[in-house]
Structures are given as structure tokens and as C-alpha cells.
Amino acid sequence: MNDNTKSAFFSRDHRAIAMCCLLALSLSLLSGCSEEATLPPRTIMLFIDMSLSTIKDRENYKNYMGLVVRKLRPSDKLTVCKIIDLTIADFTPIYQTEIPKFDFWKDNRTLHDKLVQQIHQNLIVAVDSVLDSRERIANSEIINSFLICEQYMRNKTGRKTMILLSDMLECSSEVNFEKERISADYVERAIRTLKAKGRLPKLNGLEVWVAGAYAKNTEQYFAVQGFWNRFIEEAGAVQKSYSHALLEFE
Length: 250
Fold this sequence. Notes:
The chain folds into two domains: 1-38; 40-243, von Willebrand factor, type A domain (Rossmann fold).
């Protein structure tokens, strides 16, 4: 083998090695992207209780909101709403967004990441502004947030999630957990009444997280939780967590 032949041989060999390295790098990047893409996107409704009884917990709500934002995935759709005394009659979302999906072949990773960070920041600013307000809302129609969720999720496909940042102390014309004693008989009567009035939503497969749950004492806490356990079960939803903190949100 003469020198020219050797040179051509090694040149081809080096090109082949370079092409293999480039292919391996591309497959590695695509693997990372595909792993992100295989996570199922979610339609998420997040409700924030703005009644007076929750003022002491507003800073915690901000922390829980931050956790939710960090858990958002590509193609997730998020709608943030308020629980007030006219939750359904005066329904207006605080913020709506969809997290953009990164396209390896079209998108610039740096610009894409900046866009996602800006969406996160805008979301946090919008929610903090609401939480910092001091509206004097005495009552809270939590049940009606489930009815709104039913309407919104009706034609949605894929994974559906509902998050409630609330003490879960319903205080409305039909149910008042702050004044009434919640017994097993009370829960049965309340569920029957809601069914009769068409106020029990159909939320089959919906995943529900509750953070901020509170009561004056342990007995009342578990009584209130018992009502929501029954309500969510009757609605066909799946309760993932019910706590004062946002536990294991995914």
C-alpha cells in the first residue's frame, strides 16, 4: 500500500468514525427528547380558594403553585381559576396556557427554554397578584368548582387533572361546613340532595389533588374529608391526595 492509498484509506476511516459519532450524538439527543415526549400531556384545572378563611394560607398556596409549575410538562394545558362566593356565576379564568413542546428538528433549545421560563414566570406573577389581593369574600362555593371542571373537561381527551388550593370548608346556600355538624347521616342527605338537583358532576377518570385542607379540630377535619371522599367517588373521579400540603403531585 503506497502513501497515497494509505492517506485515502485513513481519510475514509476518519470520516466514518466522525459520522458514527455524529449519529450517536443525534440518537442521544433524540432519546432525551423522546423520553420527554412519551410523558402523557394533561389538561389541568387549578382552583384557588379566595374566601376569607384561607387568607392565613395564601403564602402556602404560592409555594404549592410553584411546585405545580415545576411539574408542568410539554403540551400540558393549564387553566387557573378562583373559588369565590359566585364561583360558577362569575367564572373567569385567572390564567390559561399551554406548555410548548420542543421539536428537535425545528426549535432552538435555548430559545425554547427561555419561552417556557417566561410562561412560568407570567403564570406565577398572575397568581401571586390574585393571592395578594384582599377581597372580602365570605363564602366559598367549592362544589361549583367541580361543576365548572365537568363542563371544561367534557370533550377533552387524555389525562385530566384537578388541583384545589383550598381549606375545603364549603360555605354556600346548600352546604355550610363551618356551622353544621358533619355526620354520616349529614353526608348521605347532602349527596342525595345534590344528586336530586343535578349538582353532582360526572368526572370519570379525573385525578384530584387537594392542598390546604383545614379544620378547627381533628374531628372536623376527618368529617370534612369524609364528605369530599364520598363526593369525589360519586362523581367518578380519583382522589390522589387530600392534605394541608400538596403531596406527591405528578
